Amino acid sequence: MPGKRMTDKAAQRLLSGRAWDDFCEQVRLAGHMVDRFGDSADALDRAEWYRFVTRLMRNGFERFMENCEPERPRLRDAPWRQGINFQSPDQDHLLAEFVDGSHDYRITGNRGTLPYFVMAAWSAGQPADIGARDWAPRGVEGLAEFDPAMLRTTGFLQSDAIRFDAEGNFEVIASREKPADGKDWLPITPDCVGILVRAVYHRREQTRAPVMRIERMDGALPRPLRPDEVSAGLAKSAQMVLGYAELVRSWWQDNLGARPNRIRFSRAVYLSNGGVPDRHHGFGTWERAGDEALVLSFLPTPCDYWIFQLCNIWQENLDNYEDGDGYVQKYTAAYEPDGSVRIVVAEEDPGTGGNWIRPFGHVHGGMSLRLIKTAGEPPAVTLHRLPLARLREQGLAALDGVEPIISGEVED
After folding, report:
1. Side-chain-side CA neighbours of residue 342 (13 Å)
2. CB-count exposure of residue 258 (10 Å: 0-12, 13-18, 19+)
């Protein structure tokens, strides 16, 4: 039968070493995609690119080699320092990977003192014979058939809609059919490839982290690994590396890089990357010379949480995030008397008050403004670009002689 022939071919690809060679060639291709940036990527950008590719490899292995066993689902956090798509440092991503949506699941746990989380089910176009085919010869063209970076949210469940007992315990059923007993439900589709829980912290150091578990409801027992599954895992991992490499390239070169120092809110762009419709998420790029400063200001829309992030051109969190730098969020920000927020991006603190972010040696990159559970449209963002020395000498009065850039428009 066709299914067995595909399984046998996938197994043979692995056992002969062909699946491994195909994986290595795809990763080699992804590594060299930085060459398309020419002189627009400086030495720091290029160094971070090659590290970015290794992180994508690690993420692919974690998701598709270690965490995609059909009989043993798990909710695991994203690998350390894997900041794909402007990942918030105040948000954990607990992810369970599936081969498909043919099974029903029970998610149980305790929310700790976490103020908010949202569960989402994902789908993605995924050929049944992925492990039986060579993908490297197709390069980025193969992403049209299978791109793990393009995920569609098919269902979501906010913690506000989940029933918790007095201790914070809960139970959610993830299934295609709504539970007859009225239990809290996360709907999944036949082509579901995973569940993602976004756990949002307001003040992480003051919060007791949640504990969550997932299990199949049919009581399936774990079993030994099969060669065809490893072949498929290698193919998925390699396609994920190539997919995210192409994603950041196209975002920068074909989209965001064309309008520097502006933020645009696009629901379609955000949802195309597995987003959930409980938030506004604006994306943009920033650029400044090493001796310049960027001054941004906005009045946050009433919301449960917001965060402004500075990232590199690969959409990764800057290395100074570990020091609490590189981003500003609602619960730790300094506010102006009218409730607005002013952020200065510069290598040195100009002493103008507000919130100072060091770009940590970068002269350009991506930036993001995310607002969760908003009560209205996202805010306009005003940006001034000027010499750091002038800002230090004249203070905020220096902004009067600079033409502001106004952005923050909603595209769709």
Report:
1. 14
2. exposed
Q: What is the pLDDT of residues 323-335, one digit of tens each?
A: 999 999 999 999 9
In the block, which residue shows the tokens 């996202």? 378
* Digit-coded pLDDT (tens) for 140-151: 999 999 999 898
DSSP string, 13-73: HHHTTHHHHHHHHHHHHHHGGGGGGGGGS-HHHHHHHHHHHHHHHHHHIIIIIIS--TTS-
pLDDT in tens, 40-49: 999 999 999 9
Cα–Cα distance, 29 to 139 (Å, whole number): 7
Show the CA angle centred on residue 211, arms to residues 205 and 212, nearest 5°: 140
Q: Is the pLDDT of residue 275 over 70?
A: no
Average pLDDT, the chain: 94
Q: How many CB atoms lie within 10 A of CB 161?
A: 12
CA distance 68 to 98: 6
- pLDDT above 70: percentage of residues in the chain: 98
Strands 355-357 and 262-265: unpaired
CB under 8 Å, gap of 24 or more: what pairs does 252-258 form?
A: 252/37, 252/285, 252/313, 252/366, 253/36, 253/37, 256/283, 256/284, 256/285, 256/366, 257/285, 257/313
Whether 14 contacts 20, CB under 8 Å = yes
Conformational region of residue 130, where left means phi above 0, alpha means psi within -120 to 50, and beta covers everything else: alpha
HSE (CB half, 13 Å, CA atoms) of 373?
A: 12
Q: Cβ distance 222 to 73 under 8 Å?
A: no
Decide if 303 contacts 333 (C-beta within 8 A).
no
